[in-house]
Specification:
The chain has helices at 3-39, 43-148, 151-168, 213-218, 225-248, 251-254, 268-277, 281-287, 295-373, 399-407; strands spanning 177-179, 183-185, 188-190, 194-198, 202-207, 261-264, 290-293. It is of the alpha/beta class. The chain has a 5-stranded mixed β-sheet. The chain has a two-stranded antiparallel ribbon with strand order 2-3. Strand 2 (183-185) and strand 3 (188-190) form a beta hairpin. The N and C termini lie far apart (135 Å).
């Protein structure tokens, strides 16, 4: 019950009390009038009596009204207190889960804040480390770019990158490829950077001295956009001129190679930036028997070369195995002939042995027994019993050996 309901209840009580007082006053007034009429009092006496009765009735009515209003007000207060207690309890029960959820949320927020502070510290450490690495990388890159400006260093770096690609593809130096191999063609010394051997006698020629001076200058951070375009245009022209130089060296006439040369470009950006200025650069190289190769596509090509070596080795081994098998077959055939001859010899020896045993028993032993009966022979030893050998050597059953025996 709210305050408005209490006020309305109190007002209603006051109205009821007022009506009751009014009714009492009306009754008393009528009673007084009746008495005045019956007693035929004078006007003054009536006025005095009416005044006294009115005052008395008013006092009684006021007392009753106050008593009734006090009782109603106390009842309203009791009801309001009970209602407020119930609502307070209901509200407390209603907001208790919310309070518990808020407490849990505060705990979670505190936990998340601790984790966030730890993660922020780790992130800050990581960012600082990355910053240091970036500074170091920038310094090393600048040093490398400065070193690559020298033709000798640039050539050595290109050869190193080329060697890494060849080694990673499974080729081995001294077996599958050679460095700085030289040859003579038209009284001119030709020395490609790499000479890759192809089975059985072919070679692939690779040049790694690609020009990149203007490209490195264009990649500097302090170069304006217009100057960068000029430098990249010069770079594309440098590549085109280098293609012309390679096609004019006539590598293919100095070695037993294919009629094209591989121009190794150690950075993909070197070709990409050149193609933006001269889109026909690759076709231009093809027309001059020069193939542009970055580390990515050169690796695929060299893997193919490595596979060709493996297949050639397998084929050579197969030929050697076939040759060894043929030799083994001939040697087994000769051995089988010897076995066949031995069997024949054993059969002949057994036949002669059995004939000798028969002759011994028929002719010699019979005569010796007669000699012993005559008492000529002394000693108790009996003549040994000689038996013929019935077993014969096992015959050959293999078709190859029987054929050999038949042919013999």
């Amino acid at each position: 019950m709210n305050l408005l309901e209490i006020i309305l209840g109190l007002g209603g009580g006051l109205v009821v009390g007022g009506l009751i007082v009014y009714g009492i006053m009306v009754g008393r007034t009528r009673e007084l009038a009746t008495r005045l009429e019956m007693q035929d009092l004078s006007k003054n006496q009536f006025a005095e009596t009416f005044a006294a009765l009115s005052a008395e009735a008013l006092n009684k009515n006021n007392q009753q009204f106050l008593t009734l209003a006090n009782e109603n007000l106390q009842r309203f207060h009791q009801k309001a207190d009970a209602s407020l207690t119930e609502k307070h309890l209901a509200i407390s029960q209603l907001i208790q889960p919310v309070n518990e959820s808020l407490q849990k949320m505060d705990s979670k927020i505190a936990e998340i804040e601790l984790k966030r502070e730890g993660a922020y510290g780790e992130l800050k450490t990581l960012v600082n480390a990355m910053k240091d690495q970036h500074v170091l990388l920038h310094t090393q890159t600048a040093s490398l770019a400065q070193a690559l400006r020298a033709p000798t260093s640039r050539g050595q770096w290109g050869e190193m990158q080329l060697k890494r690609v060849l080694d990673f593809s499974g080729l081995h130096e001294g077996i599958h490829y050679s460095r700085q191999a030289s040859s003579q063609s038209n009284d001119k010394g030709i020395r490609p950077d790499m000479l890759v051997h192809l089975p059985p006698n072919k070679v692939l020629l690779i040049d790694a001295k690609v020009p990149m001076q203007n490209y490195l200058s264009a990649m500097q951070p302090d170069v304006s956009e217009s100057d960068r375009n000029i430098l990249l245009t010069r770079h594309s022209t440098d590549l085109k001129n280098h293609i012309k130089v390679l096609s004019g060296k006539e590598y293919t006439q100095g070695f037993d190679s294919f009629d094209w040369v591989i121009m190794f470009v150690p950075l993909d950006g070197l070709i990409q930036s050149a193609l933006e200025k001269q889109p026909d650069l690759i076709e231009h190289a093809w027309n001059r028997n020069v193939i542009l190769a970055t580390p990515t596509n050169l690796l695929g090509l060299m893997r193919t070369v490595s596979y060709a070596h493996d297949q050639f080795k397998v084929n050579e081994n197969a030929k050697e195995i076939a040759k060894i098998g043929e030799t083994l077959y001939k040697r087994v055939s000769i051995f089988a002939n010897h076995i066949t001859s031995m069997g024949k010899s054993l059969n002949g020896a057994l036949d002669h042995y059995n004939k000798a045993v028969g002759s011994l028993e028929r002719n010699v032993l019979s005569t010796l027994r007669e000699v012993k009966t005559l008492g000529i022979a002394s000693g108790e030893e009996e003549l040994p019993v000689m038996k013929a050998i019935e077993d014969t050597p096992r015959k050959l059953t293999a078709p190859e050996l029987i054929a050999e025996e038949t042919d013999a």
